[in-house]
Design brief:
By secondary structure, the protein is of the alpha/beta class. 48% of the residues lie in helices and 14% in strands. A seven-stranded parallel β-sheet has the order 3-2-1-4-5-6-7, with helices on both faces. Helix 4 runs parallel beside helix 5 and helix 7 packs across helix 8.
Length: 263
Amino acid sequence: MGFSEEFKGKVAVITGGGYGIGKRIALKYAEAGVKLALAGRTTAALEATRDEIVRMGGQAIAITTDVAKEADCVRLIKQTVEAFGRLDILVNNAGIAGPTKRITETELAEWQETLDVNLTGAWLCSREALRVMAAQRSGDILNISSAAGRIGYPLRAPYAASKWAMIGLTQTLAREWGSYGIRVNCICPGAVEGERIERVIRARAEALKLPEEQVRRAFYADAALERMVTEEEVARVALFLTSSASSGMTGQTLNVDAGRIMS
């Protein structure tokens, strides 16, 4: 995608920017000339991604952040604006898998932690980013939900609930802030190749007492393309949804799942 001129000089915050989808989105934005603030709980991973971007000739800072903590989210946006002078894009990607258990076996603390990170963290970061974007009269927020935000997901109630709620948050913020020139959209990735999905598969296989390969196949058995998607494929859609190519879109949720869910 030839977006380099359009994105040059823009500033983005990416939560969960040290690993997986968040890292790939960060690298995709860096290729397009975006200045990046990478946020997450694991400092070493953030710094590794930052260093990779710098080696590419890009600009990035690493800000250790627990999005479940209000003070951390306030500091994240403040330090980003102090470093770069503005904020154009927020990608709410930080998330945890939560427990793989029936609801009757799930502790309140496990439920609460999953919602705190996956949903409240996105709400807190959006709140702080919107203060800046509203003053600028422009900005894009991109929420990363999941295929589990579209369909019921047995044994993963906290995760599914948080991801369904992300879609509602997306639509609400889009209606609330559209008059300020701010767009809010969402991506629902399906099973994404990588270490994270392998951890999910192992946990699910153990809970269901099934072979890992059987569980793995179930994640894409009903996908039209008969495969998982890649981090790169999700990152390309992220770039599109925060570009002028999608300027008429807000409040929308796109599935990137190899054709598993077609609604």
